[in-house]
């Protein structure tokens, strides 16, 4: 294999399989962003594995010209953990949805983040079950009418990013399916992070939940309803670039202020610190529409070691200490006797 | 020193089975001892140390640890009684013995629970110090069994073990509680004397175990020596007698004792070496399967990756993921856990990835009896998945057999690209037997060949070997072989998703035929004991092997025309099995379930095989099988 490594284009990461998502599905945009990301980061297809569970989002691996494993509902994190442990050199991407990742697979998502397996989790959140035809999901807002909740859902939704933070994730980011300018950059950072990276992607389900995110994704509303954070920069947003987030005096709460009003200056605006878990939690849980939806890399605070590297370091240390691995010696260890 | 009280004026114990008197010592062919006490009394340790001492003397042996699910049940209660039975002798020993010859009962509850099993005129050793009013009440005795006629038909050796132990360790400055915990070693010392076993291995073990607390080690050794010395003194006074059990005639070689849990772990490591793969073991703690996880976790120098998953499902899924990435994925559990793994096993069948699943069966359904044995997961292993999802099934007969079958499971899984289920049970997992160490160099390797980049031309993931029907195994990281697999049906010709009806039929059939074809790659079924034709075949599988084997041997000595057929391959069945069974007028299948293998045999071969069932959480006794043979063949011998 001495062929020169040629730079691959996004198209080189597309398979010849016909994409079977509904026309207009947000998944197309995410697929495009992921293929661009892999080209940007110069990923090698043979070293890249896409693992998914069950659901619309989980068909993703079939459309990536890499290795792919379409597994069972909710369990992709466990498969991905096994893959990464067996071969830590592989670059593992995990594609899941709000039902797959947070309902049936909530436990596994918790543990893959807690263990800090070095992989990227892309959670496509469309706040609905698509493949089973439109039932409400664990991220649906209260009152969601669906075939299984004709009078509206009554249970409170989970916040995926707050869940990830609680689980111990060290990289948490948020993007929008159609945000082609931002998404590849976010995904590239997720990839660069050593450890489990969690990216929630707001994804529009055009058939069962169309427009559920319109109030902050529509062009006209976006500027006032989205806050794209960057580490070390003040959290300013709005079509006039004069709104910002400020920490309330004497209370651990955030408020929206307007620069130039009531004596507020840019110096009053909170500067984003992506290593601050407490700040991250505040940003994940800001109620919309009173606050903008926070997007970008919100939390990044790498741990000293990822899980699979720690596991292999321990194995290597034992190997070095014992020097030999002799099964015959193991069998003879303890008490033996000879029959002549 | 107190002289033992011996009931009914018997000055010398006389175990009926003594076949000859050899000078001072009564020689016995075999003896069954059961140690019973509170779950905190250290009975499992006592039994397992007696086992080591016995094995080192060259006796053949089999053991049966029987303990409650509660870690520390309330002291003195009948449900907190823990027991360890050992059968040892100078002839071949295949079971832990039907009825104990000697029962050591450390308290009234232990006596109450176990006395019914003791053979008539057997010996009871009791700790009179534990027969307090409070303990008698807890055990449910209205009157003291040591004072009424409860023990009339047995020989009793009543000793205040508590007091004797306290005296023996008084110089070591232990608390009363710590000192009393040496009681099991005092008792062990006495038993070692009585059956002429050496103390030295136990002393070495105590020194290692309590290396960080030398005073505890010394006290336990003192108690052990005191129990032994007590026997010698009592013998001089004529109150106690010693017995010798000769060496068994075993095949020459190096031996050790082994439990099923150890043998499975070592067999998996050996199997992975023979396949040339890294072993990945994903598991979630569950009784009685956890020992495999514990053993493998300590074998990191072999490159073994152990993964204690968040649940049973994650354990199997991670193992399948590891296999996908080119390791040997293995998962292990007991019935309830295997039930949770069912969906993932279907994926392994559909994606045709190698995987070994160990099921250490326990009594079910649901939580059932976690520490008691049963073989009621055969249906689950054969049929417990959605869709047509055939999986080869193997079952180990004995603790040592686990080693060989773990290797066989790895061989089949990797050669045929399929999950394989290996059934053991709680009895096999915990019981110990002598094991002649295998010659590892003589084991035939079966190295796995991954698909190479040079084979990229025309590659597709479900291209099959014409002979085995196994698909090729291309692992991530290999240039030129990028592909996608999953649980959706695949095209026979390309491996891409296919909803074509004819293709689904073809794929289902090829998955079936691949597994059925394994019948050509496993040994023909043989008869363990007896003729290949005749009046009656007793067909068994799993841990009933010993009881059936002994029963059939005895019946044949009595003149009955009966044979023993033991199955290790339960799916696919050996290809000559149908013909073999048709040579018998009657086929009886004893199982620790309500009749699972028997139904399989009836369905496969249309023969009127009949069940004999025991579902009490206890292994079959030899006598129970023997009675069936006698009843069935009547005076026909």
Description:
The complex is a heterodimer of chains A (about 350) and B (about 625). Chain A is of the alpha/beta class and about 350 residues long. In chain A, strands 2-1-3-4-6-5-11-7 form an 8-stranded mixed beta sheet, sandwiched between helices. In chain A, helix 1 (about 25-40) packs across helix 6 (about 185-190), helix 2 (about 75-85) runs parallel beside helix 4 (about 105-115) and helix 3 (about 100-105) crosses helix 4 (about 105-115). Chain A has a domain at about 10-210: Rossmann fold (3-Layer(aba) Sandwich). Chain A is built from 11 helices and 12 strands. In chain B, helix 2 runs parallel beside helix 3. In chain B, helix 3 (about 135-140) links the parallel strand 8 and strand 9. Chain B is of the alpha/beta class and about 625 residues long. Strand 2 of chain A pairs parallel with strand 19 of chain B.
**How is the quaternary structure best described?**
heterodimer
Uncertain segments of chain B of ≥5 residues (pLDDT<50)? 1-14, 16-24
3D shape of chain B: globular
In CATH, the topology of the domain at 10-212 in chain A is named Rossmann fold
What structural class should be given to the helix and strand makeup of chain A?
alpha/beta
Principal-axis shape of chain A equals globular
In short:
The complex is a heterodimer of chains A (340) and B (637). Chain A has 340 residues and is an alpha/beta fold.
Helices and strands, with pairings:
The complex is a heterodimer of chains A (340) and B (637).
Chain A: H1 26-40, E1 48-52, E2 67-70, H2 76-86, E3 91-97, H3 98-104, H4 106-115, E4 120-125, H5 160-167, E5 171-176, H6 183-192, E6 197-202, H7 214-217, H8 219-225, E7 226-229, E8 236-237, E9 243-247, E10 254-258, H9 277-284, E11 293-300, H10 307-322, H11 327-332, E12 336-339
Parallel strand pairs in A: 1-2, 1-3, 3-4, 4-6, 5-6, 7-11
Antiparallel strand pairs in A: 5-11, 8-9, 9-10
Chain B: E1 5-6, E2 20-22, E3 25-28, E4 30-38, H1 43-56, E5 60-66, E6 81-89, E7 102-105, H2 108-114, E8 123-127, H3 133-139, E9 155-159, H4 161-168, H5 176-180, H6 183-194, H7 200-209, H8 214-236, E10 243-245, E11 253-259, H9 260-275, E12 279-283, H10 290-297, E13 305-308, H11 312-324, E14 328-333, H12 335-351, E15 355-361, H13 378-383, E16 393-395, H14 401-416, E17 419-425, H15 426-430, E18 432-436, E19 484-486, H16 501-517, E20 534-541, H17 545-557, E21 562-567, E22 569-571, H18 577-582, E23 584-591, H19 597-605, E24 610-613, H20 622-633
Parallel strand pairs in B: 3-10, 4-7, 7-8, 8-9, 12-13, 12-14, 14-15, 15-17, 16-17, 20-21, 20-23, 23-24
Antiparallel strand pairs in B: 1-9, 2-3, 4-6, 5-6, 11-18, 16-22
């Amino acid at each position: 294999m001495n062929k020169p490594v040629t730079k691959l284009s996004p198209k080189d990461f597309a398979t010849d399989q016909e994409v079977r998502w509904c026309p207009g599905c947000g998944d197309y945009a995410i697929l495009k962003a992921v293929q661009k990301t892999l080209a940007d980061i110069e990923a090698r297809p043979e070293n890249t594995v896409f693992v998914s569970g069950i659901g619309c989002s989980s068909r993703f691996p079939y459309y990536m010209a890499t290795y792919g494993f379409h597994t069972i509902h909710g369990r992709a994190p466990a498969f991905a953990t096994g893959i990464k442990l067996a071969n830590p050199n592989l670059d593992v991407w995990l594609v899941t949805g709000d039902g797959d990742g947070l309902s049936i697979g909530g436990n596994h998502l918790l543990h893959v983040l807690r263990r800090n397996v070095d992989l990227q989790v892309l959670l496509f959140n469309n706040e609905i079950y698509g493949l089973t035809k439109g039932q409400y999901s664990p991220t649906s807002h209260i009152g969601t009418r669906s075939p299984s909740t004709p009078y509206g859902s009554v249970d409170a939704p989970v916040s995926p990013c707050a869940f990830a933070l609680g689980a111990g994730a060290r990289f948490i980011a948020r993007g929008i399916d159609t945000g082609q300018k931002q998404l590849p950059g976010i995904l590239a950072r997720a990839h660069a992070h050593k450890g489990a990276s969690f990216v929630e992607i707001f994804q529009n389900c055009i058939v069962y939940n169309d427009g559920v995110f319109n109030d902050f994704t529509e062009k006209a509303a976006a500027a006032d309803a989205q806050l794209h954070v960057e580490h070390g920069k003040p959290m300013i947003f709005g079509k006039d670039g004069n709104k910002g987030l400020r920490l309330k005096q004497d209370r651990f709460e955030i408020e929206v202020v307007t620069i130039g009003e009531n004596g507020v200056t840019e110096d009053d605006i909170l500067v984003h610190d992506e290593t601050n878990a407490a700040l991250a939690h505040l940003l994940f849980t800001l109620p919309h529409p009173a606050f903008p939806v926070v997007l970008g890399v919100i939390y990044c605070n790498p741990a000293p070691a990822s899980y699979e590297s720690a596991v292999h370091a321990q194995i290597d240390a034992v190997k070095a200490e014992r020097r030999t691995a002799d099964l015959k010696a193991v069998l003879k260890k303890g008490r033996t006797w000879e029959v002549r | 020193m107190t002289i033992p009280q011996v009931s009914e004026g018997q000055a010398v114990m006389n175990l009926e089975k003594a076949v000859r008197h050899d000078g001072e010592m009564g020689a016995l062919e075999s003896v069954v001892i059961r140690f019973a006490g509170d779950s905190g009394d250290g009975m499992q340790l006592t039994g397992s140390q007696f086992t080591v001492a016995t094995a080192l003397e060259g006796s053949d042996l089999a053991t049966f640890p029987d303990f409650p699910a509660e870690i520390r049940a309330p002291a003195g209660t009948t449900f907190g009684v823990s027991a360890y039975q050992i059968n040892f002798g100078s002839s071949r020993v295949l079971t832990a013995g039907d009825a104990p010859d000697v029962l050591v009962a450390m308290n009234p509850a232990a006596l109450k629970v176990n006395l019914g099993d003791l053979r008539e005129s057997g010996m009871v050793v009791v700790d009179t110090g534990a027969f307090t009013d409070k303990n008698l009440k807890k055990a449910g005795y209205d009157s003291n069994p040591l004072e009424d006629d409860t023990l009339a038909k047995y020989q009793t050796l009543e000793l205040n073990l508590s007091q004797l132990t306290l005296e023996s360790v008084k110089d070591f400055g232990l608390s009363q509680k710590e000192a009393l915990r040496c009681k099991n070693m005092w008792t062990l010392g006495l038993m070692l004397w009585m059956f002429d076993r050496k103390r030295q291995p136990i002393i070495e073990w105590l020194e290692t175990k309590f290396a960080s607390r030398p005073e505890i080690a010394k006290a336990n050794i003192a108690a052990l020596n005191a129990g032994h010395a007590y026997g010698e003194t009592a013998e001089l006074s004529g109150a106690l007698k010693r017995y010798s059990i000769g060496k068994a005639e075993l095949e020459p070689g190096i031996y050790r004792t082994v439990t099923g849990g150890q043998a499975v772990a070592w067999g998996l490591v050996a199997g992975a070496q023979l396949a040339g793969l890294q072993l990945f073991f994903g598991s979630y703690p569950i009784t009685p399967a956890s020992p495999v996880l514990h053993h493998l976790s300590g074998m990191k120098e072999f490159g073994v990756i152990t993964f204690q998953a968040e649940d049973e499902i994650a354990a199997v899924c991670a193992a399948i993921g590891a296999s996908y990435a080119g390791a040997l994925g293995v998962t292990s559990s007991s019935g309830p856990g295997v039930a949770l793994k069912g969906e993932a096993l279907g994926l392994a069948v559909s994606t045709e990835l190698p995987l070994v699943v160990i099921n250490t069966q326990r009594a079910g359904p649901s939580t059932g009896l976690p520490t008691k044995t049963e073989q009621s997961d055969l249906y689950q292993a054969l049929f417990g998945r959605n869709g047509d999802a055939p999986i080869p099934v193997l079952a180990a007969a004995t603790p040592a057999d686990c080693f060989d079958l773990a290797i066989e499971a790895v061989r089949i899984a990797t050669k045929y690209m399929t999950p394989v289920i290996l059934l053991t049970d709680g009895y096999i997992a915990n019981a110990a037997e002598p094991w002649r160490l295998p010659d590892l160099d003589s084991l035939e390797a079966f190295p796995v060949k991954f698909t190479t980049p040079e084979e990229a031309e025309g590659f597709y993931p479900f291209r099959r070997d014409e002979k085995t029907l196994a698909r090729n195994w291309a692992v991530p990281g290999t240039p030129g072989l990028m592909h996608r697999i999953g649980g959706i049906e695949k095209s026979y010709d390309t491996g891409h998703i296919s909803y074509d009806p004819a293709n689904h039929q073809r794929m289902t059939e090829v998955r079936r035929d691949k597994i059925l074809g394994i019948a050509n790659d496993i040994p023909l079924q043989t008869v363990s004991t007896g003729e290949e034709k005749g009046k009656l075949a007793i067909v068994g599988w799993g841990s009933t092997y010993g009881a059936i084997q002994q029963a059939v041997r005895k019946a044949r000595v009595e003149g009955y025309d009966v044979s023993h057929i033991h199955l290790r391959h339960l799916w696919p069945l050996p290809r000559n099995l149908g013909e073999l069974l048709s040579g018998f007028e009657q086929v009886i299948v004893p199982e620790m379930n309500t009749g699972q293998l028997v139904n399989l045999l009836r369905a496969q071969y249309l023969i009127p095989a009949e069940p004999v069932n025991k579902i009490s959480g206890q292994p079959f006794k030899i006598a129970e099988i023997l009675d069936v043979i006698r009843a069935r063949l009547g005076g026909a011998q």
